[in-house]
Amino acid sequence: MSAISRLFGKNLLKGLDEIQASLQAVVEKQEFSRKVDLNKCSPEVLPVAYQINNVLETFDTAYKKQIEFISCAAHELKTPVAVLKVNSFNAHSYTTLEQYKENYTLIEEYIERLSILVKSLLFMSRANKGTLITELKITDLSHLVRETFNGFEPYVSNMNISMSFDIQPDLFVLCEPGQVSQIFINFVQNAFSYGRPYGYVKVSLMEEDDKVVFSVSDNGIGIAHKNIEHIWEPFWQVKKSRNNDGSSGLGLAIVKLFADMNDAKLSVKSVLGEGTTFSVSFNKVKGN
Question: Which is more confident, 165 or 96?
């Protein structure tokens, strides 16, 4: 029996020993799944036990997510590292310049994939630590959209998918332009990655009441309704993209971070087999 229980009475504070044991298990063994047995608590202690269990549940959920994230990150890193290792080893047996060129091209491709993944992981780590600084400023979003996709045609010219723009002029919001531009690019890249041959991608920027809404629509493979709630999770992907672009699975998770940092709201509408529309809405402000 604890000193407190002896001081105030065994029955009145029944359960303090159970609480102490649970907290000790968390501190010493990181057993976040350990909970206080409410049946062992007196009515006076029960409210505190409930609160402690709620806190432990929050810790347990966060801990499991962290473990899952590390596992997924390791899995994503495993493939490019394995490819680089195998091709570096095989290079010793090559005898022609053509073989060396093919090997170099493949190694270069996987180094780029590895670099993107590592940068994304570092970014998410900094964001979760709260060390990222976002400097918001009044921005002409209409101009930012045009600027973002200026010269974008070469990227999509060989995909047999048409791209169109409907941009309302002179729409201003408070945002960090670099982060918002990345949201735009990610939405469009996803539309092309999961689009269908000879399909379309439509980009629009419109004023809706006191909001400015950027949307990207496609008639690609779509997303099942049950999966929509998961798309912002790190490493979660609907299925292999059509053009096998080596996506890390972190794009939409980073989009979610950028949206939160810019006080923007994300939404998705999708019908499996028919297409998807991704949207991000900002509070409209007056221009300079």
Answer: 165
